[in-house]
C-alpha cells in the first residue's frame, strides 16, 4: 500500500489571524484565517531542509473540504472538524468565537483534522485535498467543478427522509445504535466535566482570600506574624495554580469532543448504507412488479387488481398489436432493470466491504486514542495532586511556626 | 517538671508555676494535670404546655476536695448556661469569660431544632464549660460549682437569690453608657493598645470566618458534581469492549476522590469552622471587657474630679477614692493577666486549627494521588502486554 500523505509531507496549522473582509452579500465581516504550512519530508541524512509552502484558509473552506470528502467517499468515516461554536463551556471560558483561547484550541483542532485526513489510507490520495493544502487560488472553483454539490443535495434530502428498510444489515444497525450511545454518553460526560471544572475553580480561588487577610492580620501579631504572612503567600500560589490545571484539562475535553463528532460521522456511514439498501429494495420491488405485469399481459391472466385491468374489462380489451408493443417495452425495461439491479448489488457489496474495512480501522484508532486520552487524564490528576501536596506541605510548615 | 515544660511548646516568657501549668494544658491534648473533667452530651427534647426546649446532659468527674462527690450528672438547658455566664461576668467584670453559642439566629437554612444546629450548639457548650474549667480563677467560682452539681430544683432556687436579672441588666446598661461618655482619658497605654489590637483582630477574624464558610460551601458543591461524574464513565463502559476496563478504572478513581473530598469537608466543619466562630464571639467579649475596665476607671475618675470641687467631706472622699483606686488596680491586673493567657490560647488554637486544615488537605491529595497512580500502573501493565504481542512476528 502506498504510503499515506502524512509520511511524505509535514503539515501544520501554525498561525491564526483576525481578518476583515466583505462577504458574498457585500457586508463587512470579521473572521479568522489560519495559516497552513507544508513541507516535503526529505531524507534527514542529506541535512537539507525543503522549503516551506504556506497558504491561508478560513474555517468555511475547511467545511467545504469536509463536505466534499463526505459526499465523495460515503463509505469512509470522515474525520470531523473542531466545533464551529464553543460548546460545553464553564463560566470562566468564553463562548465567543473571537476569544484567543478558543481560536488557539480551534487552530490545534484544524491541524489535527488535516493530519487525520493525511494519514487516512484512502482520503490522503484525494486530489482536492492535496490542492487544499498547496493551491491557494481557484481551489473553491476546483471543488465546485467536481459537481459534488448535486450529489450532496440529493443525498442530504434522502438522509433526512424517513424510510423503512425491509432487510436491514444487522451489523450496521448495531453500529448505528453504538454511535447514538457514544454521542449521548460523551455529551453527558462533557457537560458534567464542565460543571466539575467550575466548582473546582471556585474551591481554589476562594483560598486566595486567605492570603490577603493573613497578610493584614500578620501586621498586628508579633509571634504569629511571620507564619501567617508566609502561609498567606502559599494560599495565593494554591489559588493561582488552578488556571494552568484547567487549561490542560480543556485539551482533554477537546479529545473527547473529537470522538463525539466522530460518532456523527459513523452514523452518517450507517445511514448511507441504509439508503443504498433501501434503493436496492425499491429497485428489486420495481423489477418484480414489472415482470409480473409482463407475465399478466402475456398470459392474459390478471392476478392482481389493477385499474387498467378493470377498465379494459369494462371498455374492452386491447388489440393484440397494442399488447405486443406493451410487452416489448416492458421486456426492455426488465432487462435494463436487471442490469441496474446487478450493478446496484455489486455497488452494495463493495460499499459494505470497504465501509466495514474503514470501520474496523476506525474502531482501532478510536480505542487507541481514547485509552491514551484517559491515561493522560489520570496523568493530569496526578500532577494536580502533587502540586496540592507541595503547597499544603509548605503551608503546614508555616502554620506550625505560628 | 522539665518533661512537662517540653510538652508545652510555648515561648519561654511564660512562667512555669504549678497554677499556670494547669491553665496552659489544652483539654484536647490530654487530662494529665486536670482535676475536673466535664462533658456535654445527650441532647433531649422536652415538650411542655408553654414551650419546647432542649436539655443537655452535663457529666462532671473530679478529684477536688471541695466537691462532695467525685461524679455528677445533671441536665441543663441553654437558659442555665446564660445564667452561669452572666454570674461569672458579674463576679469578674474584667476577666475574659468564654463565649456561649448564640441564641437561635435565622442563619442560612439551619432550623432551630435541626440535628445540625443542636450538635453545633452541644459542641460549643462543651467547649464553654471546659474553657471555664481550665481558667485559673473561674474554675473555683461558686456558681460554676453549683451549675455542675445542683439538681434542677436546687439550681432554680439558687438562681432566684441575689439581685434580679432586670436590676443587673440595668447596671450593665448604665455601665456601658457611662463608659462611652468619657472614660478614655487616663486610660493606661497598654489598654489602648489592646483596644486597637482588638479592633483589627475582630475585623480579620470575621473575614476568616466568612472565607472558611465559603470554602466549605464550594467544596460541598464540588462534591455534589463529582458524585455524578464517576458513574457516567461506568455507563459508557457498558457500550465498549477494549476500553471498558479503563473507563471503569476512571470511574472508581473519581468515586474514591469523591469520598476523600467528603472527609476533607468534614474536617473543616469539625475543627476550623467552630474555632473561627468561637473567636468571632471572643472578639466581641474582649471589647466588652475593655469597656467594663474603662467604666470602672471612669467611676474613679469622676470621684477624683468631684473631690477637686468639694471643699468639705474630703476625708470621706479620700477613703472612697482609695477603695476605687484599689478596685481599678485589681481590675487592670486581672485583665492584663487574663489577656496574656488569652493571647497564648489564641495563638495555640489558631496554629493547631490551621495546621489541621493543612493536614486534612494533605491527606486528601495523598489519597487521590495514590488512587490515580494505581490506575495508571494498571494501564501500563496492559500497554506492556500489547507491545509485547506486537513485537512477535
From TrEMBL, chain A:
GO terms for cellular component: early endosome membrane; plasma membrane; SNARE complex. Keywords: Protein transport, Transport. GO terms for molecular function: phosphatidylinositol-3-phosphate binding. One of its GO terms (biological process) is positive regulation of autophagosome assembly. Residues 12-139 form the PX domain. The keyword Transmembrane helix does not apply. SUPFAM superfamilies: PX domain (SSF64268). CDD domains: BAR_SNX4 (cd07622), PX_SNX4 (cd06864). Belongs to the sorting nexin family. This is SNX4 protein. It comes from Struthidea cinerea.
From TrEMBL, chain B:
One of its GO terms (biological process) is protein transport. The keyword Transport applies. Residues 34-155 form the PX domain. Residues 307-334 form a coiled coil. Pfam families: PX. It comes from the Eukaryota. GO terms for molecular function: phosphatidylinositol binding. Transmembrane segments: none annotated. The keyword Secreted does not apply. GO terms for cellular component: early endosome; phagophore assembly site. Keywords: Coiled coil, Protein transport, Transport. Belongs to the sorting nexin family. This is SNX7 protein. It comes from Struthidea cinerea. The gene is Snx7.
